[in-house]
């Protein structure tokens, strides 16, 4: 290496650093939170170039007093709001229980979506029941909102005899085509171009169904994200591209995905795609943005990217302890609050809900989850013998089993027999 | 082989025309078949394999794509999940690597991980192999990477007839298929002598191709020549190089064209090697960890007590494909001849 | 597949189509060409968010009268301008000759850069001689500007005995570390993250050298492009990211890379990176933008993406016939003209050049190229025997040759000997 | 093995600590060594392999990266071209596929295609293999894909001592090295009995590791146990599973831990198999086209006339890694025992 030229200042490498580390007091007062209702709502047919500013603000509907305000207010009736609240609370109850099940050794792995319940639940409510979702691992809210049986989810988590995926997948990597829920992959962001492809197919066929996909802000760095946005803009695919910016990717803060320089909604601007930045803890804002994007997609105006600004309130997964790398005070200091609480307060402000009913519902949901768990455990828990028959391991690699898998299957059975197990 | 009423009259085709015809036939029969890839639309592909298809079937069924192999395969998987039957082209097999994650972690795993809730019935076409002075990045034979991956089939034709019949079977197959096209023999069977005038398919019996629909079953090898002296396992371009060398040397070899690498026609291989007692494997891909290694392992596992000499592998060397030394790299007649001498010496 | 819902209009797939196909008359009157001098020139230390508009305009210096105007005028002296012109004309002469050599069967492949000479030449002049370039296959102008020997380039093209790459690479895939020219890859866009990595290393070491990279607009779709921009923005890498938008990627027009929806410079906006859109046929604009970006990089302000709007005046390569897919009239109808002619006219307008000198220079350059060709051909042409020794094929796979390559090398030699060749 | 004055005192380390120590030692010796990857910085890696390094060497030498494996490898190559010696981590080997093009078309080819004008002296670390209930995408063993690629070395340690010495050699090597870490044995040697209490490295002689600098040479296998009855070729976790099974069965096997797959220690293999006349190959990766196929092919090519029985492969099955049936999938004691019976039966 040559010595630096004396007449020029040396270069230096910028390595991002989050504001708070363990031991620091978390202070989010510099986070810019625009007032609810302040973002304009363009017509869903407007060209994306006309509303770049929506990629740099926060679309918010629920104000601090629990009122729904401004042009993005979806004006849902109380029944819909209560269903939304119930689904979100159910996600939380489910997460709590399954997290505990993992800690009790009943399965190998679990991932909560605490603090992010609005993003999956409200979006799902704004979609048609037959629109196809390509989620990441943190949108269990889609299944719950669409009424997928809790017991079946748990069977998958336990990899037991009742698991529709035959114990083949890591817990929470659900697949439920009849509920419009694509098979979750362990590899980040691969679902993004797949969602775009599904949407392109739907468009090519003159169908009316659209696709929606989700990935974390950390996952936006993958090449798949870029391919997806490129295909989406080129063919004006009827797809909603959700980026869940919960500010953490395991131990890496969002600065390592580029958050220091701009928003994630701004990525859309780079492709000429409609981009919205939404308060992800405001269920009504999530609903409204999704509804707008769905309308845009369904009228052949093409894709929308929605950044949901939120906060991962708990660890990345059961394998993670977030206090090792971030301030323990962050979850509470986080200014956009708890999505369940905010929606609850809105319903209360509307006179359509009260604390007692909420507490009763929480109890009821906990009971429902517990009942489902008992039911699921009848089918077995991981590693306790009540798994799928061994031969199933060789099925489904291909539609028809080729000779080499048949041989391997027979070999396995023979070997186990010979060994007396 | 054909076993199909709809095969129709036969005409002369080279391999590109046969491949084109397979897509043409399948697009006409099945509205869910779509063709996509870099330059495949208006232009009809850099090797002209998709020529005329966009004019005939329209832009929503035959379209150019952005230059992102991740996207081409990822989008095809999504289309397959919707219910279409996409036939994406990767312009050169050397450019399949950016798409590897979508192929391996997604296409090949989707049926298994979702317990058949979703599948990826896609056929990835890609020209592969050397012999056209394409340098390191237009000459590779990556089949050995994919044959190691559970959940994907690998098919390699060696004639126009097989190319069409196999491609139709691949498109109709409900699993992902990697369909590698030996570009050196697109226009004619190559005998391995780069310095002789090139032949075209017009004199070859398998250049006679039905115009309509027929299948060549996946997983079935073809015995190109029956013989007693040894068994030669090969596929793609090498089938012709081997056949010609054997003919020139007057050796009574049994030549097996594998046609499908996964699933393999193990029966054909086993029967032949047990008969001849000697086995040679020829491929253009680099040697270490190539598909020849698997073939060698299988043969010795299954025919151990029949083998009279060590199994010989004649393959590309373990270097990148060197532009100017292409013909020294290529496992041609010289190298096959020397290997035969060794294998038949006692 | 379900039938489309009757109450919703069917979706349709948008598949881009270029404006002209063979037989059509090319008419570019709708291409927006802002007047030279109209784009503002921010301070190179200004935050990228302040000048988004520069990603959507065209920075132009040379006006129709051949005058250099506006804030981006780099005010080069006549000597520098003449060197620039000479290098550009040399690139063209070299391309002509080598194209013909391929047609004469002297090599397997060639790629011209006709119409794009300014992009490589002017940028190189704005960089320091020891800045590292990570080019695509169409920036031969870098080598020529930096004085790399023509004979050596030709030796590479002929894969002959004098080829520094020992005949291993496809023609034009040069490598010249001592001229700050990274080894060209056949795989598109892979050089993008590599350039960012080199720049990050330079920054980490407190060096003063920066990196520059080039790729075509078609190649921007690759995942590597996105990884590169993500790393570049995160670590504020001192790198210049050039996108050569020559509007064609083999037979695919730029719409398949996303040009219908926005510019390629806009990609920068999506990452919060400085983005400039430049008249790529205006050598002074290319120079000025590169100089600005280099200053930005050298003062730790981070990366700049420059879209060079140009036109691929000839076929993609010797394997391509563009009249099969685009209007034959396009190259002439193209409104931004010929970069060599425009720079020549500027020098003439300045009184520093004239048509006679230009014609004489063209002759002289053609002679120089011809002389170099004769020299190179003494070392052999492709396929005519004067190649590297066969054993060299096995060298350089690893630093030290492992046993299996040694064996293979010996085997090859023995086999050839046995065969009497 | 060490042959180095700077090895210093030995202490007890598990494999993670040994790997951490290798990077620590190399970073202290060579200012050009940098460590990068997802979560490797402040947090020290999801397996803690890089714990403490950022605090010690600073953020410009140890840093977190965006989640793009293309970028991690591409950027590392660029840094290598500058003159650094990057040690990128891919969080799980299952996530190496997105980076395959940068590894295969770039890192592995750079020296060759530029005639050594540029090189890529990078060491890609990645935890691999199953046995931790990681499901299909945290359990794969992709070594067979890379051993087929010319220009990249593949190294797999089986003990803390070797892990450190090999990693140091890999970092010092001027070619790209894929360094696969058998995550199942990070904390202790696994005997293959998942239902017995797990052991740690404290009782194992190779858990005794010098604190300083020493090398274990790349390309050299280790004979874990000398024997006469047969030769067993293995690496990574399988070394311990095999050793334990052999001990339990009381078989006089010669066990060879390959340690480096490319370049392979062919001499050690050949000498051993010629002595024992029988050969078994054990790996966790899927069978078809796995590295075992290459080993089998090489052994039969070189030891044909010494072989008394067919070479046996004991490998992962040709399916994705099934979450709940992990222990039926894993090539553990049961399967090794049955294969031994077959191999030794006459
Ligand atoms: C291709 C790939 N690389 C790395 C990983 C390991 N990994 C799993 S989750 C994760 C973090 C993802 O963060 P983000 O996208 O922000 O989603 P979040 O967990 O916050 O919902 C990483 C690095 C992976 N699963 N796949
Ligand atoms: C990964 C990869 N995919 C595909 C190709 C084949 N290919 C070579 S050049 C090219 C077009 C590139 O167009 P563009 O980026 O616009 O550059 P230009 O040729 O216009 O300079 C294609 C598709 C390749 N070389 N590498
Ligand atoms: Mg996140
Ligand atoms: Mg172009």
From TrEMBL, chains A, C:
2-oxoisovalerate dehydrogenase E1 alpha subunit N-terminal domain mapped to chain residues: 9-47
Chain spans, region Disordered: 1-46
Top EC category: oxidoreductase
Required co-factors: thiamine diphosphate
Top-rank taxon: Bacteria
Example of a GO MF term: branched-chain 2-oxo acid dehydrogenase activity
InterPro entries: Alpha-ketoacid_DH_E1_comp, DH_E1, Oxoisoval_DH_suAlpha_N_dom, THDP-binding
EC number: 1.2.4.4
Keyword tags: Oxidoreductase, Thiamine pyrophosphate
Protein's GO biological process: branched-chain amino acid catabolic process
Gene3D superfamilies named among the record's database cross-references: 3.40.50.970
Boundaries of every Dehydrogenase E1 component domain copy: 86-381
Catalytic activity: N(6)-[(R)-lipoyl]-L-lysyl-[protein] + 3-methyl-2-oxobutanoate + H(+) = N(6)-[(R)-S(8)-2-methylpropanoyldihydrolipoyl]-L-lysyl-[protein] + CO2
Pfam families reported in the protein's UniProt record: E1_dh, OxoDH_E1alpha_N
Family: Belongs to the BCKDHA family.
Function (record text): The branched-chain alpha-keto dehydrogenase complex catalyzes the overall conversion of alpha-keto acids to acyl-CoA and CO(2). It contains multiple copies of three enzymatic components: branched-chain alpha-keto acid decarboxylase (E1), lipoamide acyltransferase (E2) and lipoamide dehydrogenase (E3).
Record's protein name: 2-oxoisovalerate dehydrogenase subunit alpha
Organism: Sphingomonas gei
